[in-house]
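// run 5 | inverse folding | seed 20
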């Protein structure tokens, strides 16, 4: 499956969030997390597209696709990665440390800190050996005994999963067949056997049939690619001022891209509420775009 094809599967962070971060789909996220972590979840609070605090962001940006609080003592970030930028282990280490930092209240004893977990769902393999799902924690080099239970990282390698065909962890396998969308036969079986998978697949098919969603996904990817090239040039030449200007330009281009999409969807007659859901622009911003368009005509 090419990168372009993966952009229209749940491997894409935008589509993944549209399904798993919805309040009415909390039972889907709950089941998926229970199967990955192999724990019973009795309380789950999900926050879509959470952000690192400003001090961490200024030093090094980190994308978080979905942040969840589980059972009052665990905080989880789920991150999707389609392209192998050969930095995922460093990025995940940064993410889990930032997560621990953000969720430790001032004056709180370190022993009372919430357990911080990062789950990386990857469209590529990073480990030649071992299982498709690999967990890592803080352990001693000599005895390999755990030093702290406060941080943990899970790497789920989808290509290795498709090849290995896990028969032991059936529900986890069903969700990974859904996310990958590669093995159609196994996916059809999962849809028949699991009502949550069936509902997720239905919502996914509705999403990708929406031209507005497709347009936004490819616009986001184009913008990210353009900005990445500019950022790399600025970093290589060591121009800090230019780097900040590029970051500012990225934010501006992202907003403009969303407005362009919103205008196109207004022309197609979509409701303001639906356009807001697609673009993440506020209803007030879309109302303003609609008013401006009316006055122009």
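// decoded
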């Amino acid at each position: 499956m090419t990168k372009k094809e993966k952009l229209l599967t749940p491997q894409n962070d935008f589509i993944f969030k549209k399904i798993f971060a919805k309040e009415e789909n909390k039972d889907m996220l709950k089941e998926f997390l229970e199967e990955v972590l192999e724990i019973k979840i009795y309380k789950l609070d999900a926050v879509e597209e959470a952000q690192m605090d400003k001090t961490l962001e200024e030093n090094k940006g980190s994308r978080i696709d979905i942040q969840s609080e589980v059972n009052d003592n665990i905080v989880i970030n789920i991150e999707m990665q389609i392209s192998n930028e050969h930095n995922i282990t460093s990025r995940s280490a940064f993410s889990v440390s930032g997560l621990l930092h953000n969720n430790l209240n001032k004056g709180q004893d370190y022993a009372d800190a919430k357990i911080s977990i990062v789950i990386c769902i990857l469209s590529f393999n990073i480990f030649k050996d071992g299982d498709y799902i690999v967990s890592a924690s803080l352990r001693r080099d000599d005895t390999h005994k755990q030093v702290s239970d406060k941080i943990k990282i899970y790497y789920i390698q989808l290509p290795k999963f498709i090849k290995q065909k896990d028969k032991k962890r059936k529900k986890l396998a069903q969700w990974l067949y859904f996310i990958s969308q590669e093995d159609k036969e196994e996916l059809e079986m999962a849809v028949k056997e699991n009502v949550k998978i069936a509902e997720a697949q239905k919502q996914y098919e509705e999403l990708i049939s929406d031209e507005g969603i497709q347009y936004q996904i490819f616009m986001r990817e184009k913008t990210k690619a353009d900005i990445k090239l500019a950022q790399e040039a600025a970093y290589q030449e060591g121009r800090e001022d230019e780097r900040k200007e590029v970051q500012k330009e990225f934010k501006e281009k992202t907003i403009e891209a969303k407005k362009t999409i919103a205008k196109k969807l207004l022309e197609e007659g979509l409701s303001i509420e639906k356009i807001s859901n697609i673009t993440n622009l506020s209803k007030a911003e879309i109302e303003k775009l609609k008013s401006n368009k009316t006055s122009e005509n």
